[in-house]
Write a structure and sequence with these properties.
single chain, mainly alpha, two-stranded parallel ribbon, 2 strands, 2% strand, disordered C terminus
């Protein structure tokens, strides 16, 4: 959603409107009277998509492709300014699931890719890890640390799996920077990985970070595959558009369309229950159809409660 340039609402709640990276965007308030109009034209425009598109015609594969295209367009806007930094922010944002996405993006802004790479090359991985802890607000400033701007991120303290805590995920930040620093450009690391992969499962190795001394892995195979689908492949497809390389874009699209199923989550399980209650019995067969299912869920196919679940908006 960093590509959003205008937020339109019916009523202003007073909340600050900004992108995940913290950039404030304009707010257009239509007003309660406008939203409540019942004339034919506006009424048809406000009808839920489930009425315009019968559920038996829903195509999860087509929806998955639409989601990917939307994702690519968002990355095109981000990558045209500072490509390597945008890739770095997107990767770190994936570490914040489910409650610290914005905080990890703030960390990537405070400790940008060029500084991380310089620390790895000149000082080593241990020094970078100390700088990560300090930038994240979990440690003192190490001797010789670079000058950083901005406040430390505010981390969610909600309970959860130990591997999901920000302190554990910081080791992944260090491991990724150490792994990717050998290339002068992060975009080359990403594009080469996609072009050289013979199958989608090869790409997960870029992101897997194993635990030490018997500890749980900060980034296991499940999370690594999600990062591949949600970040790596759409970002590289966007780079193909920016470079006018149809071959690069097509390769990223092919790997996405053939990527095997990801693990189910609360969204996919709820969406499946709601659609089943409305007569749709099909199930996703791969990651693309899973993303299509989520896309259908979030764009409002079901407009009323089903099986006690919240309606799709």
């Amino acid at each position: 959603y960093n590509g959003v340039v205008l937020h339109v609402v019916g009523e202003d709640t007073g909340a600050e409107i900004s992108t995940p990276s913290g950039i404030r965007i304009p707010l257009l308030v239509l007003g309660r009277e406008f939203v409540q109009q019942k004339d034919e034209t506006l009424g048809a425009a406000l009808e839920p998509r489930s009425d315009a598109l019968p559920l038996h015609q829903l195509d999860m594969a087509a929806a998955g492709k639409e989601w990917f295209r939307n994702r690519v367009h968002g990355y095109i806007l981000q990558l045209t300014s500072n490509c390597d930094q945008a890739l770095w922010e997107g990767a770190l944002e994936c570490l914040g699931y489910p409650f610290n996405k914005k905080s990890f993006r703030q960390l990537a802004t405070k400790l940008p890719w060029n500084i991380c790479r310089e620390l790895v090359v000149s000082k080593g991985t241990a020094r970078l890890h100390q700088a990560c802890l300090w930038a994240a607000g979990f440690g003192d400033r190490p001797a010789g640390a670079p000058t950083l701007t901005g406040k430390a991120p505010e981390w969610s303290r909600r309970p959860g799996r130990p591997a999901n805590r920000p302190q554990a995920r910081l080791s992944a930040v260090t491991a990724w920077a150490s792994r990717w620093a050998s290339s002068a450009r992060l975009e080359e690391t990403f594009t080469e990985a996609v072009m050289e992969a013979s199958r989608p499962s090869d790409l997960a190795e870029m992101f897997i970070v194993k635990g030490s001394a018997g500890r749980q892995s900060p980034i296991g195979i499940t999370r690594a595959r999600e990062i591949v689908v949600n970040h790596l492949l759409p970002a590289v497809a966007a780079l193909g558009h920016i470079r006018n390389s149809a071959r690069l874009t097509k390769r990223a699209e092919t790997l996405y369309e053939s990527h095997p199923m990801l693990s189910s989550n609360t969204v996919t399980r709820e969406a499946t229950r709601i659609l089943a209650a409305r007569g749709v019995r099909s199930r996703p067969r791969n990651a693309m159809e899973q993303q299509g299912l989520i896309h259908i869920y979030r764009t409002g196919v079901a407009s009323q409660r089903a099986d006690g679940q919240l309606p799709l908006l």
